[in-house]
Amino acid sequence: MNSTTTFKCLNCNEEHRCEPRKRGRQRYCSKPDCRRASKAASQRQWLNRPENQNYFRGSDNCERVRQWRLAHPGYKRNKMSASSGVLQEIPNPQIIGNELIVPSDAANMLQDLCIAQPAVIVGLMSIITGHVLQDDLLATARLFERRGLDILHRTPEMCDPRPL
CA-CA distances (angstroms) from residue 74 to 70, 93, 123, 159? Predict the structure, then answer.
């Protein structure tokens, strides 16, 4: 094999033929494991650059994401999910004889939902407001709390102290 058209994969250590447009720059072959290793190496290299160290951290970056979302309204909302395209016919329901269905675990299901209450509330706020950033949801949660206290004619001192 000609050395200018071959390379040794950094992951599997096998010799492969270069793709014509990547001659001299190709370091990984197209096997799935090698592609994953290539992606991991690229991300490591990107994160090691000083200008990228805090790219995803801090209030400045939170504001950057917020501004991007304002500039791109509806992004990712109108995409069809994979389950929306039906690939087969829905079978006709069959009538089953009269059976008594006993709700044996109904109480346990309610308890499970109550345990997950904070996640349910955060999810509901996210759906109502369209926000997914914690800073935005925190402001919404505080607004909801103030309004609830007003409706119940309570003051924050009357409630149990709890962080929001």
Answer: 9, 37, 18, 38
Domain-located, residue 149: yes
DSSP H or E stretch at residue 8: strand 6-8
Domain count, the chain: 2
- Maximal C-alpha separation, the chain: 83
Q: 3-9 long-range contacts, Cβ below 8 Å, gap at least 24?
A: 9/34
pLDDT in tens, 87-99: 666 677 766 666 6
**Could you tell me the residue range of the domain that residue 41 belongs to?**
6-53
The pLDDT tens digits of the residues spanning 23-59 come to 788 899 989 999 999 999 999 999 899 888 877 788 8
- Written as six digits, the tokens of 14 are 């096998």
